[in-house]
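Backbone-to-sequence.
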C-alpha cells in the first residue's frame, strides 16, 4: 500500500472554487470548462479527500430562485452522502458582483454594507444546512486604492459592526459556528484592510465576541506580504486563534498565484506541516488551483499532488523529531541558565539580584549556536539522504 496515498483520516479538504477553477486570468479567457460541483465531489472522494468547502455562489449561483436553490442543495447533499464527503467550512462570495467593487462590509455605501449582511446571513444558513462548523471571511474587495475618501478608520468600524452583527445572528440561530478571518495584503484591491495575520489578531480583540472569531491564515497571502508563513502560523497558534488554514504556495512579491502546496517553498511547506501536525487538529484545506496551462487531468494531478506532498512532509517531520543528530543539535542550540530559572518570577529581591548579576559577556558573544549545521541537516533530511 502506498503510504502517501491520501485517506479521509488525513482530513484533506478543497474548495469547490479550487478544483473547479477554469483557468481565467486578467489577461485571458478560461482554459478549462466549468465543473459541476457534484462531479468535483466524486473525483475528490476518489482521490481520498475528506471534504469540500464552498462560497454560496460556487454551489448556488447568485440570484437563483428558491425552488431551484433547494433542488441544487438536495442534489449536492446526495452526492456528499454517496461519496462520504463532509463540508467543514463555508464562506460568502462578496467580491464577484460589480456592486461590491468598492468593498462589501467596508463599502462607503451603507446600502451595499446592508446587502453584504443580507447575503452573508443567507450564505451562513446554507453552510449550516450542509454542516459547516467554520465560516470564513476573506476580505475580497475590502480595501482601497484611493484614501482621499477618508474611510480608513470608518472601514474598520464598519467591518467590526458587521462581524458583531453576524456573531449575534449565529448565536441567535444556535448554529455553533466559529468565524475565521483570512488576511491578505492586496489583490484584487491595491491595499486590503486587515492585510496580515498580525493586523487581524489585533482587530479580533476589539470585537464584541472575540472568542467566536479566529483566523484562516493562508500561506500565499503572508508570502505576498514578504512575511514568513510559519511565523504567522505560530502567532495564530500562540493566540489560540488558528481556526482554519489555507494551504498553497506562492513566489514572494508576485501576483497571487495559488500554486500547488509545496510547489515553490519546500522549507516553508515543511515547517508549516510540522506546526500543523503538532498544534492544529482541523481540516487541512487547500486553497490553490491547477496552473492555467493544465487540462482536466492536470487538475486532478494538482489536487493529488497537494495531498501527497503534505503527507510526505508529515513523514519528514516525524523523521526530524526522531533524528538523533538533529535532536542533539537542537538540544545544544537551546541553553539553560544554571544560575537562574526561566521564566523568572518577578519580585523586588529577584530584580535587585538580576541587576547585580555579573554575566560572562565574552563567552556569550563568542558562542556559536550551530544553526548552519542544523539547517544543513534539515535540508539533507528534506532531500532524502538521511
Ligand atoms: C483568494 C482567497 C480566496 C478565499 C476564499 C475563501 O486569494 O482569492 O484566498 O480563495 O480563501 O474566498 O474565503
Ligand atoms: Mn488566496
Ligand atoms: Mn484563501
Amino acid at each position: 500500500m502506498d503510504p502517501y496515498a491520501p485517506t479521509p483520516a488525513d482530513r484533506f479538504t478543497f474548495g469547490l472554487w479550487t478544483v473547479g477553477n477554469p483557468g481565467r486570468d486578467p489577461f485571458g479567457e478560461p482554459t478549462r470548462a466549468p465543473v459541476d460541483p457534484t462531479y468535483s465531489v466524486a473525483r475528490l472522494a476518489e482521490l481520498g479527500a475528506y471534504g469540500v468547502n464552498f462560497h454560496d455562489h460556487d454551489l448556488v449561483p447568485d440570484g437563483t430562485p428558491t425552488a431551484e436553490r433547494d433542488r441544487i442543495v438536495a442534489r449536492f447533499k446526495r452526492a456528499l452522502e454517496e461519496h462520504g464527503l463532509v463540508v467543514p467550512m463555508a464562506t460568502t462570495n462578496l467580491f464577484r458582483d460589480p456592486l461590491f467593487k468598492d468593498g462589501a462590509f467596508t463599502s462607503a455605501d451603507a446600502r451595499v454594507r446592508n446587502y453584504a449582511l443580507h447575503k452573508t446571513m443567507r450564505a451562513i444558513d446554507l453552510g449550516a444546512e450542509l454542516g459547516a462548523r467554520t465560516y470564513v471571511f476573506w476580505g475580497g474587495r475590502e480595501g482601497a486604492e484611493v484614501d482621499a475618501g477618508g474611510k480608513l478608520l470608518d472601514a474598520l468600524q464598519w467591518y467590526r459592526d458587521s462581524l458583531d452583527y453576524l456573531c449575534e445572528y449565529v448565536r441567535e440561530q444556535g448554529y455553533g459556528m466559529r468565524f475565521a478571518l483570512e488576511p491578505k495584503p492586496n489583490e484584487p484591491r491595491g491595499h486590503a484592510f486587515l492585510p496580515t495575520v498580525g493586523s487581524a489578531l489585533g482587530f479580533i480583540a476589539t470585537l464584541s465576541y472575540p472568542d467566536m472569531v479566529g483566523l484562516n491564515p493562508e500561506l500565499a497571502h503572508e508570502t505576498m506580504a514578504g512575511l514568513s508563513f510559519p511565523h504567522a502560523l505560530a502567532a495564530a497558534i500562540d493566540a489560540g486563534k488558528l481556526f482554519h488554514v489555507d494551504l498553497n504556495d506562492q513566489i514572494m512579491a508576485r501576483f497571487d498565484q495559488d500554486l500547488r502546496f509545496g510547489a515553490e517553498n519546500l522549507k516553508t511547506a515543511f515547517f508549516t506541516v510540522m506546526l500543523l501536525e503538532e498544534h492544529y487538529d482541523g481540516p487541512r484545506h487547500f486553497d490553490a488551483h491547477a496552473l492555467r496551462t493544465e487540462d482536466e487531468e492536470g487538475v486532478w494531478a494538482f489536487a493529488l499532488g497537494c495531498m501527497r506532498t503534505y503527507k510526505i512532509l508529515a513523514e519528514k517531520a516525524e523523521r526530524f523529531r526522531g533524528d538523533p543528530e538533529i535532536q542533539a543539535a537542537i538540544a545544544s542550540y537551546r541553553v539553560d541558565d544554571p544560575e537562574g530559572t526561566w521564566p523568572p518570577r518577578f519580585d523586588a529581591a529577584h530584580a535587585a539580584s538580576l541587576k547585580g548579576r555579573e554575566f560572562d559577556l565574552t563567552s556569550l558573544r563568542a558562542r556559536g549556536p550551530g544553526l548552519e549545521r542544523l539547517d544543513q541537516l534539515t535540508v539533507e533530511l528534506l532531500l532524502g539522504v538521511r
